[in-house]
Each structure stands twice: as structure tokens, then as C-alpha cells.
Specification:
This protein has 365 residues and is mostly beta strands. The protein has one helix and 24 strands. Strands 1-24-23-22 form a four-stranded antiparallel sheet. Strands 2-3-4-5 form a four-stranded antiparallel sheet, with no helix packed on it. Strands 6-7-8-9 form a four-stranded antiparallel sheet, with helices on one face.
């Protein structure tokens, strides 16, 4: 198995015991607990995200009432404490995916920081860039194109090595056709380019992630019949030197028909430092873990949401996986947002990258 603990993490403080997906119980890995429940939540039904900063704090969208999709909230992944982080003055903004690019010490002062994050605006075909210099937040449109599919960007992935960004989105129609999903590339200057077509993407696209070596793009692909999902797969593409995808390299990384759950949508996806892909299954209250070889190695049954929308590795060591979604069995557009968490043997790639660069000058400014 590929799911092993990385050296140098908190795991080595625990005698560097070997950890695998087959026997993780020694440290109570993969056991979800409610972090924010229906009675304590300050998030609405459109809760999504999920982001993390270098301190391991988690971030999600739709802080406040269900209509307030222009507000980001911050969560302590250990205590569940919640607070408002950013309010976009444009009330038409509908935040969805969030990714931090930098969280850096300012002038060598640990408590004085510069944070840079991207937030997908799902209804307005744009990605917003937020730069927080201590308490002052500067907001700008980083990447947009009127030709984007309505509903894109839904989520985004970061190629930290090459400073590139990948966007996914979907049109949820009665009967899915290839035009219902798209993948776009935004370069470091914010230039947007559509990199998929109807021969490379054959269904709705949602979750998206980049491999550890920046050579592979993973994207979920789903197909509807009569408004109901009948197929869900994760597709992989080789990434060419210019950041576009090699369409001929299209490969089914995992087909959920293998475990007979093809009628459950894949939503958010994140990768850990060993290359394992974690994906939320929106409709059956699960997170699944896929090995770098595309093998389904674990299913994690959640305790507070049947509709998990996204996840991220947070906490002081980056090993607290925070999952967000509508509480209980609430239908889309109803109810409120819940958060839960479980321990993972390995930290997430995003957290690790932010910590690694936290004393440097932000390369994304």
C-alpha cells in the first residue's frame, strides 16, 4: 500500500510507528466526530470550500444565512470555534472553492502576516484574489472569462510548483452531454484558457486536484439520466509543460461502478503528502481514499452530513481532515452547514506547502 506516514511529521513523535490504511486504529485514524453541528453552526446550506492556512485553521464559504454566499468563515479544527473572515461587498458573489496560496511572516514577525488566497465565484464566471496584509484585505478579480460554462468555477486546484490553477464546473441537466463539464487553466498572470473539449471531458466536472509531482490532473466526471447520477468516475490527464492537458492521455483513474456507488456524486477532492486522493461523496455521507495507483483503499462514513461538499487537511500538524456539508439529510438549498473532522496519518499537501514557504516572500503576489 502507498498510504504510509511521512517522516518528519507528528507521527514520528509517536515512535514513528508504521501506519497503513489496513491498520490505522492505533491512533484512532479515520474516525469522524462532529466539529460544528446543526445547533452550533454559523454556516448556511451552501457551505463549501474548504481552505487551510499555515496555522492549520480551516476556512469555508457561506458564513451566515443561506443567502450570504459572499461571506467566508474561519474555523478552529480542534474546538469548532467559528468567526467571520471576509465579506465581499458585491452581494452577488457566490463563493465556492477556496485555496490559500501563501501565508507568510511579514518582516520576520510571526504574528504579522500576509495571506493570499483564491476563491471561486460560482455564479459570476470568475476567481477572486484576496490579499490580506494584517487586517487589511485587498480584493481583485484574478481570472475570468465570459465563455466559461455557467456554474464554473465550482472548484479549483493549485499547481504550487508551476504557479498554475485549474478550474472545474458543471451544468446539472436532466440528461448529461459532454458540454455539461469543462476544465480551465489560469496562469500566474490570470489568463484563462479552456483546456478541455467534448472528446476529453464526457460529463459533469466537479472535484479537481493536481498530483504531487505536478504531472497529473485529476477531475471527477459524472453523468445524469432523468436528473439522477448514473455514472461517477475520476479521470486523470497528463499535464503538458505549458500547463494544458494531453487529451490523448485521458485515463479512468477510478470508476465508482467498481463498488456499485456510481449513482453518488464525487464532490471536493484533496491530496495528502503521500499522493493519496481523498474525495467527498455527496449523497451517501462518505469520504473515500484512493491510492496513487487508483485503488479504493478506504471508505470513511461521516456522522453529521449526508451531503459532504468538500474537505481539507487542517490542524496544527495538517493531519485533521475537516469535511463540510449540509447537516443531516437536508435537501439542496435547505438546512444549514455542518463540519466534522477525523485524523489522517499524513498531512495534506496544501498545508505542508504553506508551512514550507511561510518564512519566504510570497511567490504569488
Amino acid at each position: 500500500m502507498h498510504f504510509v506516514a511521512s517522516t518528519g511529521t507528528v507521527l514520528c513523535l509517536l515512535s514513528c510507528a508504521a501506519s497503513t490504511l489496513a491498520a490505522p486504529e492505533t491512533f484512532s485514524y479515520f474516525k469522524p466526530r462532529a466539529l460544528v453541528n446543526v445547533n452550533t453552526t454559523q454556516f448556511g446550506t451552501f457551505i463549501e470550500g474548504t481552505g487551510v492556512d499555515a496555522a492549520g485553521r480551516a476556512y469555508a464559504v457561506n458564513f451566515g444565512a443561506n443567502t450570504e454566499r459572499n461571506i467566508l468563515g474561519r474555523i478552529n479544527p480542534e474546538t469548532g470555534a467559528q468567526r467571520k473572515f471576509f465579506v465581499d461587498a458585491d452581494k452577488a458573489t457566490a463563493f465556492n472553492g477556496i485555496r490559500f496560496l501563501c501565508d507568510n511572516e511579514k518582516d520576520g514577525q510571526k504574528e504579522s502576516r500576509v495571506q493570499v488566497l483564491l476563491a471561486a465565484d460560482q455564479l459570476n464566471k470568475r476567481v477572486l484574489k484576496l490579499v490580506r496584509d494584517d487586517a487589511v484585505v485587498t480584493r481583485s478579480v484574478f481570472c475570468s472569462d465570459p465563455a466559461m460554462l455557467q456554474g464554473l468555477p465550482n472548484d479549483l486546484a493549485v499547481d504550487y510548483k508551476n504557479k498554475r490553477f485549474y478550474l472545474s464546473g458543471q451544468a446539472y441537466n436532466e440528461k448529461t452531454v459532454p458540454a455539461d463539464g469543462e476544465v480551465w487553466l489560469c496562469d500566474k498572470n490570470g489568463k484563462a484558457t479552456k483546456i478541455s473539449d467534448e472528446t476529453s471531458i464526457l460529463g459533469r466536472t466537479n472535484g479537481i486536484e493536481v498530483s504531487l509531482d505536478s504531472k497529473t490532473l485529476y477531475v471527477s466526471e459524472a453523468v445524469n439520466e432523468n436528473f439522477n447520477p448514473v455514472s461517477n468516475k475520476i479521470i486523470s490527464f497528463k499535464i503538458k509543460p505549458d500547463g494544458t492537458i494531453d487529451k490523448a492521455s485521458r485515463k479512468v483513474f477510478f470508476d465508482f461502478a467498481e463498488d456499485k456507488s456510481q449513482n453518488v456524486d464525487v464532490d471536493g477532492m484533496r491530496i495528502d503528502t503521500e499522493g493519496n486522493l481523498f474525495a467527498t461523496r455527496n449523497g451517501n455521507g462518505e469520504v473515500v481514499v484512493l491510492s496513487p495507483a487508483g485503488k479504493l483503499v478506504r471508505k470513511i462514513k461521516l456522522v453529521s452530513t449526508n451531503a459532504p461538499t468538500n474537505l481539507e487537511f487542517a490542524g496544527p500538524q495538517g493531519t485533521d481532515v475537516v469535511v463540510v456539508g449540509r447537516c443531516g439529510n437536508a435537501d439542496y438549498g435547505t438546512g444549514v452547514g455542518c463540519l466534522e473532522t477525523f485524523k489522517s496519518p499524513n498531512p495534506g499537501r496544501a498545508f505542508t506547502e504553506l508551512v514550507r514557504t511561510s518564512k519566504e516572500k510570497c511567490a504569488f503576489l
